[in-house]
Specification:
The chain is of the alpha+beta class and 542 residues long. The chain folds into two domains: 2-209, no CATH class; 233-261 and 340-500, no CATH class. The protein has 16 helices and twelve strands. A twelve-stranded mixed beta sheet has the order 7-8-9-10-11-1-2-3-4-5-6-12. A hairpin with a 4-residue loop joins strand 3 (275-284) and strand 4 (289-298). Helix 2 packs across helix 7 (188-224), helix 3 (67-77) packs across helix 4 (100-108) and helix 12 packs across helix 13. Residues 25-88, 90-144, 145-209 form the SLH domain.
């Protein structure tokens, strides 16, 4: 429903910005005086074509609004498509009646359901019924923050609806006695006011959604078009799992310590020529030692700098050298061209981004002026907060499966893509079917304990600081597993000349081809197998 409302209200907002209503202008209805309390709301809805008066140019503001009139107004306000709607089966609304289309669409949307097979088009809409249909139509929440009315007990059928419109400042009660008077008919003036309030409340939300979506798009475009930048920060990762009972307490403690990693990360990106460098200083639990690793990607190849061959188990002579992976040689020319073609990567990134925003909207994003997650001294214009709750994850997964995956398949359906990973079309289809079958079960066993990300964005729409906290856990009949990550990352030196800490090796003697690494690993496995095959003669055992 909100999707329909957002589209209609976006158009309404655009229209109102171009042709703003003039407060205090003379009303088009002869029974609406300039100082009438609901004049602005009535004029606004009239200008938008949502309400109309009677043939004698009256509005009859104090007359009860009929259920048929409310249905017609909501159909117009939400810009609902009345075509191809199922017959609601109301015994008191004929297909030739002028209200039939509105009754059918409103019933199909679940806004007004009728009673005992009747729509009761000419009956007045009570204030309680008004609260329900506006809450449903505009998907209002926040009922826990609504006003407590003297005549609305907690178990009253419309209690939550009344609380919701109160919490969202759509409608209020009677100040003199603190009542809501739920069974009292809603007047046409009141309904015009309440509907106008709901539209403006939704309009504020739509405007904020559009602002968030635009900022995200601008930020993505700015990041993708950078010539260069540097980054530096810290990352802590923790893992947990069921440990075998056979282990001693000391062994369990050692394993748990080993599943905690602390890292400092720094690096740089350069567009032309394309070079990325990432340097990680990792604290090794239980060894009181920090190991530095560096990875560089350039010209279709990646290089891993060997900083401590002995600790990594490599031959001592590899110290200070680079392990080279030539992706064209290892995985083929197509994969290499795809992986290192920035234009193709950016195009795909933009398509996926637009697909996700169009489908999921911006509900998980919030714009903030400041937050203590961003360190003092950081120069920024706005902060974008992304928070994913477990409930939202379920909705996300449902929408992903129904709406996104079919579209995503078409984006990723390039037959070259699977082949570049060594996967045939038949294998890819099998993988997709298996994923579909297991996804629901996987999701039911997954717990999202924490998922918050804050990004500080400067006036050029560039992310200058990125921080997050993510914690998930998974449990099924085989055991449990948990994973957590906390990180802080500062980005800067945008479009400036960068200095690589390690860079690309210049001398051939400093390069260890990956084939040599594979040969060395195979030799280690053969040595291990030979060692295991040695049999001890029992007669030689003392």
């Amino acid at each position: 429903m909100k999707k329909f409302a957002s589209m209609a209200l976006s158009a309404t907002l655009a229209t109102s910005l171009v042709f703003p209503a003039v407060a205090g202008a003379e009303s088009s209805y002869k029974d609406i005086k300039d100082d009438f309390w609901a004049k602005d709301a009535i004029d606004y809805l009239t200008e938008e074509g949502i309400v109309s008066g009677y043939d004698n140019n009256t509005f009859r503001p104090n007359a009860p609004v009929k259920r048929s009139q409310a249905a017609t107004m909501l159909t117009e306000a939400l810009d609902l498509d009345t075509s191809d709607r199922p017959d609601p089966g109301f015994s008191d609304v004929d297909k030739n009646d002028h209200v039939y289309e509105a009754a059918a669409v409103i019933a199909d949307e679940g806004i007004i359901e009728g009673k005992d097979g009747k729509f009761m088009p000419n009956k007045p809409l009570t204030r309680a019924q008004m609260a329900k249909i506006l809450t449903v139509a505009f998907e209002l929440d926040g009922e826990e923050n609504g006003e407590d009315f003297a005549d609305i007990p907690d178990d009253y059928w419309a209690h939550d609806f009344i609380q919701a419109i109160s919490a969202n400042d759509i409608a209020s009660g009677y100040e003199e006695d603190g009542t809501f008077r739920p069974n009292k008919p809603t007047t046409r003036a009141q309904f015009a006011t309440f509907l106008s309030n709901a539209i403006n409340d939704e309009g504020d939300s739509v405007q904020e959604d559009n602002e968030v979506a635009q900022l995200l798009k601008d930020t993505m475009d700015a990041q993708l078009n950078l010539d260069s930048y540097t980054f530096e920060g810290d990352m802590d990762m923790t893992m947990g799992m069921d440990l075998p009972d056979e282990l001693t307490e000391e062994e369990k403690a050692a394993m748990e310590e080993a599943m905690t990693m602390q890292m400092n990360m720094r690096g740089a990106f350069q567009m032309d020529p394309l070079v990325t460098e990432t340097v990680i200083d990792q604290t090794i639990p239980g060894f009181d030692e920090t190991i530095t690793s560096a990875a560089v990607m350039a010209d279709g190849k990646s290089y891993e700098y060997v900083s401590d061959a002995a600790f990594l188990g490599y031959p001592a002579e590899w110290d200070g050298k680079y392990i080279e992976m030539d992706y064209e040689e290892l995985l083929g020319e197509e994969f290499s061209q795809f992986m290192f073609n920035i234009d193709k990567q950016y195009e795909m990134t933009q398509e996926i981004y637009e697909l996700f925003i169009d489908t999921f909207g911006t509900d998980a994003f919030t714009l903030l002026d400041e937050h203590n997650a961003i360190p003092e001294g950081t120069e920024y214009e706005q902060i974008v907060k992304f928070e994913l709750t477990e409930e939202a994850l379920v909705d996300f997964a449902d929408s992903f499966e129904e709406d996104v995956w079919p579209e995503l398949e078409s984006i990723l359906e390039n037959p070259q893509l699977f082949s570049q990973f060594g996967i045939s079309a038949e294998q890819a289809e099998t993988l997709n079917e298996a994923a579909d079958a297991d996804f629901d079960e996987f999701l039911s066993n997954l717990s999202l304990d924490d998922f918050e990300i804050y990004q500080a964005i400067n006036s050029d729409n560039l992310i200058v600081f990125d921080t997050g906290n993510i914690a998930i856990s998974y449990a099924d009949e085989t055991g449990s597993f948990s994973f957590g990550i906390e990180y802080d990352m500062e980005l800067g030196n945008f479009n400036e000349d960068i200095q690589l800490e390690y860079g690309v090796p210049e001398n051939e003697e400093d390069i260890i081809p990956f084939e040599e690494v594979l040969e060395w690993q195979e030799q280690q496995l053969e040595n291990l197998e030979d060692f295991e095959e040695v049999e001890v003669d029992e007669d030689d055992v003392a």
